[in-house]
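Example record for the data management plan.
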Amino acid sequence: MRVGRATQGRKGKGVTVITGVPLAGAGLEELATRLKKRCGSGGTVTGAGAIEIQGDHRDTLVEELGKLGWTVKRAGG
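Corresponding structural encoding:
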């Protein structure tokens, strides 16, 4: 699982993108909801199975996913 930041196609607004999540359907939606609440911001699950959280929350998300038992790498700078 990788946690990175992206701005492409968002008019300069940054989002934190979590890719490589080995969940699907309701499990993915539940994880996304939990992470959005933890960060206090909005977000979505994309059709490609990635989770996007509005804003730059990479450190918080790496820490939270680690607590849940996932192996996480921070992608990008």
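Summary line stored alongside the record: The longest helix spans residues 26-39.
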